[in-house]
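Researcher: Please predict.
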Amino acid sequence: MTSAVDGLKDRLLAVSQPDDDGVYRHGEDKRAKRVEIVLDSLHQLWDDAVASMKESGDEVPAKGVALAAVGSLARRQIGPCSDLDLVIMYDPHAISDQNVTKLADKLWYPLWDSGLDLDHSVRTKQQCESVTDHDLPAAMGWLDVLPISGDADLIESTAASIQERWRKAARKRLPELTESAAQRFERFGQLQYLNQPDIKEARGGLRDTVLVSGLAMSWLADRPHGSYDDAVEHLLNVRDCIHLAAHKDTNMLLAPYQATVAKMMGLSDPTIPDENQRATESIENMQTMLARYARQIAFALDSTASRATHSLTHEKPRFSFFQIMQPRGRGRREAPKFDVIADGVAKHEGEVVLASGADPAKDSKLVLKVAVAAAENDLPIAPSTLENLKKAPIRDSRWYPESRDRFVRLLASGPSLERTWEELDFADMPGRLIPEWLGIRNRPSASAAHRYTIDHHMIEVVMRLGCEAPTGERYDDKHYTALLMAGILHDIGKRPRITDHAAEGARHVPVIMKRMLFDDDVIEMATLLVREHLTLSDFATGKSPEDEAATSELAARLNNDPLLLDMLFDLTRADGSSLGATAGEAITKKYGWSKWRASLVGAMYAAARAAAVRAKEAQTASN
């Protein structure tokens, strides 16, 4: 027996195909067409189900029962292979539980046979309110509801009730929402820095756009528009292309789909004759585009959440009854409190802001002052402050000793470096401080072992570099500075058509560090570490630590300096432990510094260090 939803998936795919040249255009129109097809099919399915029940003697009343959509269909953002999130709502006084079950069977079974995934539920109004009061994802889902068939008033009144409860519970729900977002970011990472991102769940992805809408619906903050809307539409287009490439409902931009998706997005250059090179460059172009839109969405969420938090903070007057009774207070509101935490930098309501009188348009040093204060105090930079910092007259050729020292302090700030660097990256600061950074910004790594883009991989490496050497002794300031600078620059040579990125990086390092006014000996150490940053791993996996000639050669490459070997070991360990899944593995948060690799590298390091000590002793004895 045929149904109104037979072949629904094939029909959606048919209206979603790219143009004859392989480019996916007019994504918004295609999404509207898919919504129209689904709604028409569901309308007919409902009418057929109601008629079928009537024929069997079971009445479905016009009032008191209805079919509604939530999720991407309710937001009118359904993809070519998206699942359907549907709910039957009913009033127990209007229709019996037995008849509701019969109606559900007549709707769900044909949909399961249609080829699309189905997320379904049957609820009363009271059950909907109870679930959304205690389940944050359910509450977020019900903020966008689309009546399909049946009693539209029942759906609309329930949705209005849930939205009103959402607004009233905003003070409690906002911390819960931001905490759930933080947990998701920790699990899925940041879209702009991942080689194979989940474009829905990663930070800067489509899930964040749902949170932005939820915050706006709380009436605590306005929803951003303009460039934000453009970013959302482009990311939806990428999602559509992933569905077409994978022929299933997935949001993972995995390596097998990337060249196809890039071509559909119009990023493949047909004038490049070599197919592999054309695919590689199109993927890099797509990564850059995704990073731009992901930053826009992430910033929109941060700024909207910040405004909502401030709205809640100032919801209650900042004065008390006792202030009213005091003549000096005269009943006036208390002035906002700014705690100065650095020169020109203050803390205000949990965020780093510019202090009174600080003008970034006249002070290029403010950027790193703010960054260091944020990282060392583990605080976010206020979105408005980031916008103001863009006005700073930064020139890469004009560094100051205090700015150089602050840059090193920023690198040494540990785990908080990740958030602070991301904030600076949104404001385009790293490329203005170090123009060579733009050559690797957002670039995916050609190596399957890398989970992150090249720029974020280097940040991950720096976060793992401590000031304690493998021997247990602490590095002095010069050696630790050289190690940190080697960490942030070790892959700066990974550029298109460069075969030896270590040698290319070693060519850039002295140029960069001289501009930044580092001492010559620090520059020499950092340059050597960048040039040799793969050497210890290569020796460990290709030679034996029992081979004296090999260990002596490795020691000689580091000038027979045991301390430089300590630094190379730390850099190698940080580099290896920041890797993600290798080819054939699932994308996870497990890193690539396995016990096996640690034992190989550790044994080679220990043997080479012993060789360096012997060489030093022999040199001392000969003198």
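Model: The chain has 26 helices and seven strands.
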